[in-house]
Amino acid sequence: MCSRSVPMQKFIRGVAAVAALSIAGAVHAQSASTPFDGPSVGVQGGWEQTNVRNPSTDLGIAPINRHHDTGVAGGFLGYDKQVAQNIVIGAQAELNLPIDGGFSRNGVTIDPKRSIDLSARAGYLVTPATLLYVRGGYANARVGTRIVNGTTTLSGSEGRDGWLVGGGVEQMVTDKISTRLEYRYSDFSKGDGKFDRHQVLLGVAYRF
């Protein structure tokens, strides 16, 4: 009886092992089929252009009309949810820093220091690993202003609230890592003045 129980125990163990492998395989297949689902963290960088035309500031109207190109780098935290077979929605919080943001003309200096963006996105899976999406949300830029008029110098720093819209494509390159390319427009204008920004950002994300 004891000799019969040993093969039976081995058989039961074998069945349990096969069942465990089957469950693990099913979980992996489900995870692989929905890569844009869950939290992520990443870094990004690229090109940024700031455009101003007599912007309203805490110091008054700044008499400057100019655009300025620079690099930008930052990081983000995101969360996505695949809500249908090809539809993904998500939210993202990020911090971006211009590499050389300050510029001057006619005694006026504008110095964008950092921006914090909170946005939502909606995307369509053109393949299981490729997401096309649009983005929109809130943007806040910290901007320094300096105005020199004869012997008088005024300077200050303010947070400018605004909004952003954009779109891009994100591609899974492994089961955990994705890359993205995105264009974004942000508007921080107040009153009749103009203060807006264009960005092209390349990012890399790790998905948990």
From TrEMBL:
Residues 1-29 form the signal peptide. Residues 18-208 form the Outer membrane protein beta-barrel domain. Keywords: Membrane, Signal. It is found in: Membrane. Gene3D superfamilies: 2.40.160.20. GO terms for cellular component: membrane. Its main location: membrane. PANTHER family: BLL7405 PROTEIN. Belongs to the Omp25/RopB family. This is Porin. It comes from Sphingomonas pokkalii.
